[in-house]
Amino acid sequence: MIKIWNRISNIGIHSNLTLFEKKRILLTNRLGIISSLIGVLAFFIHLFLGNAINILHAVLIILLTLPTLYFNSIRLYRTGSYVLVSSGLLLLIAHTMLYGWEGGANYIMVYIFFTVLIVFTKNRDYWIMGLLHILVFIICKYISLNFPPLFQIPSIEIGSYVFLFALTYLNVSLFKSEQAEAEGNTESLIEAIENKNKALETQRSLVKYQNQALKKANEELEETEKSLKESVEDLRTFAYIVSHDLKEPLRMINSYTQLIKRRLHGKLDEETEEFMFYIVDGAKRMKDLLDDLLKYATTTNKEVEREDFPLKDAFDVVLMNLEFQIEESKTDIYLEEDKLPIIHAPFSQITQLFQNLLTNAIKFHKPDQVPTVMVRSKTNDRYHIISIQDLGIGIPRDKTDSIFSPFKRVGNKEKYKGSGIGLAICKKIVQNLDGKIWVESELGEGATFYIAFPIKKRLKKKGE
Ligand code: ADP
């Protein structure tokens, strides 16, 4: 029963409505139900008593109050409310017409009851209708001098009225408490929203502050990057100037020591001859070092034109340049020629790169073995990877990164001549192409150098 009551009370109420509208519709629905129930009750009682006019009257109540529920259910709330209020007025008029002014006044209580509820809903339209009812009541009261006392009202109707008033009181108090609760809810809701707003505001200022800090950090980073670039450029210029300009006095030292050596040939004792050898050797080594340093300083991605060429062509040049070394050392070279890709890079730099790597692979062979070098090629979806493997002395595992820095050498520096700049140049060339270079090695286990060239699409995107 309660379930049915609740379900009918909630007819037409949906979540999009405001809280106040929900309450109002709830009230009109309940009023509609009560009125209809009274109509039904009156109908049967009058049917039992055989009072035709009252039966009609009861039917009228039902007919006039049920549409309210219908209109509410199809969300025509305004129409529903008008029907309800108008039904009261119509009943009043009908009653007055049937029973005269006394009869009309007799029925006025229902309209007062309607009016009370309507006024409670605080709706302007209802106020007007409510006032209209009160007006009709006053007119009835003053026109009808014989205002009937309550006891003349049929007992069933008194019962209905009592019932109606009880329910009205219940509804109104319910409405009031719900409204108070809603207001309470609204207050706590507002408070929660305000708190959230405050939190949001704090967050916003935090984000703003973070943004500012980020901006500042970015600016600082840009500044650092700029000054770093400048330092690198300065260093490169410095290395260039030093290596270039020192070459001339060195050439002088070299040629004059040679001259002295020739002039004093045979006149010097053995020890002085040895000293002379060291001077000449030192000068030569210094010359080689300056040559390499110059190469390193001039290896740059700027102004170097890139082209598409088969890597095999670069190896042909390298092997030609190293012909003497290969023959002399009887190096065994295995080259996967047909697998070598076409790459997009500066040709001269690529020959330089592989020449350095092959030179090392030949140079750092085990004393009791002929050098063996294997060049292989692999391609994945992003890189062409070339590997150069030798079976030489190998590199300690903890040095496999540092050897790519300028002047970093490992092992016997006397036995294996060099300046320690070759791999640094290799690294620079590969990095300029957005590639990677690394080595896998163990001491005494040979070494495998890998060079990954980004495939053409990526190169073009970044490099051109
Ligand atoms: P350099 O060969 O002139 O010494 P590099 O920069 O070419 O200079 O090489 C740096 C160091 O890395 C070498 O001195 C050597 O110790 C080590 N190295 C390079 N290649 C090899 C290799 N294939 N096998 C063993 N050691 C190597």
Features:
3 domains, 464 residues, single chain, binds adenosine-5'-diphosphate, rod-shaped, alpha+beta, 5-stranded mixed sheet, 7 strands, disordered C terminus, 9% strand, Heat Shock Protein 90, two-stranded antiparallel sheet
Structure commentary:
This protein is of the alpha+beta class. It has three domains: 151 residues, no CATH class; 66 residues; 150 residues, Histidine kinase-like ATPase, C-terminal domain (Heat Shock Protein 90), CATH 3.30.565. The strands form two sheets. Strands 2-4-5-7-6 form a five-stranded mixed β-sheet. Strands 1-3 form a two-stranded antiparallel sheet. It starts with a helix and ends with a helix. The C terminus is likely disordered. The structure holds adenosine-5'-diphosphate (ADP). Adenosine-5'-diphosphate binds next to helix 10 and helix 11.
